[in-house]
Amino acid sequence: MPFERLTCRGLRARPVVLPLRRPVVARIATITDWPMILIDLETEEGVTGRAYLEPYSVKALKYLVAALNDFSAELAGRPVAPVDLYEAARRSLHFVGYEGLAMIAVSGLDMAAWDALARAAGQPLCVLLGGSVGPVKAYNSNGLWLHAPDKVADEAIELREEGGFKGLKLRLGRDRLADDISTIEAVRAAVGEDMALMIDFNQGLDMAEALRRCRAIDDMGLAWLEEPVVYTNLDGYARLAADLKTPIQSGENFYGPSEVHKALQLKACDLIMPDFMRIGGVTGWMRAAAIAGAAGIPVSTHLYPEVAAHVMRVTETAHWLEWQDWADPVLQRPYTVADGAIEIPDAPGLGLDWDEDAVARYQVEV
Fold first, then answer.
1. Region 259-279: what's the mean pLDDT?
2. Is 92 a member of any domain?
3. Model pTM?
4. Which regions of the chain does DSSP assign to beta strands (E)?
5. Residue 2 confidence (pLDDT)
């Protein structure tokens, strides 16, 4: 029987480091191991809300685990009301700011709180939010890093076949522009004209190089150009958006919904793709999606496909879900993709339950 009220007992955060099947090789970093923080929000009623964070750097684990564990005593006895917990957690970290690590910690708590609430209601999160269970269009972002063109083309075929995908993301920013162009051409020849190809520069260019490279590939039929320059350069993004025919994608580094409003006011992007650990979890996403919806801006997701699938079902201008299976090794029942769409399980909450044997194998000390 669904609970009418949940009460926080405490929060547990466990750091794990997982091996990547296809290591990240981008212009700004190479990553072979993927750090995650598994979050369990425990309640007096016996319902546990679960979520995870992916802070990129193993070094960041110790700061975030400490912040999350500090929430535990503050939460005890509070009702599990996600919006209230979101505001309370932000206020508790007010003096270190509302962005950066503070927002990431709050986002992890928020996602776990929404999961707990949906589990207690006996509903998938998308249903609790007013939507329905159904497919969500996804592109495969599990590879296509800065390797030789022929290797990337072969991998593109593999990634397409992993779930009947109709969209793939390539990373660019090789030393020579000609090699980037050759890679796009090789992938297009391998997967055909009907495949949507997204391009990500991972903030690796300065403005002069961004203008040169983006203009050079502007007529290659690409779905978008993502983060050519450092995310804080909104004036530069506005110039690129005005200069290019290909849509500019940004947003994975927006800390909170107000950053969405600022970017759209400056016409700094044509598309947005908030990241759940930076935008403010589910609460931050819903606020950001409303801003984008009012402006008619298509919204895609960044990482966290299990959370992403649910909120995309209630996002007015939902566009593409970014599919990455990097959390799968610690999940009892990983999500699946068929015919280019992620399938939401008809289960309470987010459907995240940990494979405790795997957690024990990958857990680290911080």
1. 98
2. yes
3. 0.96
4. 8-25, 30-43, 48-53, 135-140, 167-171, 196-200, 224-226, 248-250, 271-272, 321-323, 336-338, 341-343
5. 61
